[in-house]
Amino acid sequence: MGRAKDLLSFPLTAEFIQTIGGDEAVDLVKICLKKNGKCLDEDIEKEMKHLKITEIRSILNRLHYRGIACYNKTKNKNSGWYTYTWEIKKRRIIELILEQQSERLQKLEEKARFGESHAFFACKKACEETAFEIAAQYEFRCPECGEMMAPIDSAEKAKAVQEQITTLKQELDALQKAV
Fold first, then answer.
1. Residue 7, burial from CB neighbour count under 10 angstroms (0-12, 13-18, 19+)
2. What pTM was computed for the model?
3. Where in the numbering of this chain does the Transcription initiation factor IIE subunit alpha N-terminal domain appear (predicted)?
């Protein structure tokens, strides 16, 4: 249970699960992980009383589509009804996050390299940062508001991007160690 708590304590993880499954998905995953990752949708309904069973199943199906939630289906011989036992795949959550965030990391590193070799300009309103070549084509007037553009402190911008890269690498490293 401690490791499950660790997994959901990462902002990246909670944000990712919410993006995939909706606002209630994080609580639903917490409930499943609390029960060793396996539970019935009816068990979840007992703990999430504010949701209908159809809403719970909808969230589970969205998670299932991405391989985060899997189920075993068994048929009750007396009633003929099927029972679904759902399981949350922690490893799959991490795989998907690492895949998504490694793409983000790659883009940030490209942005850092591009920023090192280019000068950027912006108007006082900071409508849009524009590379020198494009700013020159607009005669250093903002294409959105028409204000004159001035150079941006590239060292400050590079520092901010580098801080994002460092933070993301630390989060990804910690996330990999969580499982």
1. buried
2. 0.70
3. 23-163
Q: Spell 133-156 as b/e; 16+ CB within 10 A means b.
A: eebeeeebebeeeeeebeebeeee
Q: Is 89 helix (H, G, I), strand (E, B) or coil?
A: coil
Among 42, 1, 46, 51, which residue's Cα sits nearest to residue 24?
51
**Residue 5 CB neighbours (<10 A):** 12
Give burial (CB, 10 Å; 0-12/13-18/19+) of 23.
exposed
Inter-CA distances, 85 with 37, 41, 168, Å = 10, 7, 35
- Euclidean distance between CA atoms 103 and 83, whole angstroms: 39
Q: How does pLDDT run across 66-94, given as a tens digit for each residue?
A: 999 999 999 989 998 988 999 999 889 98
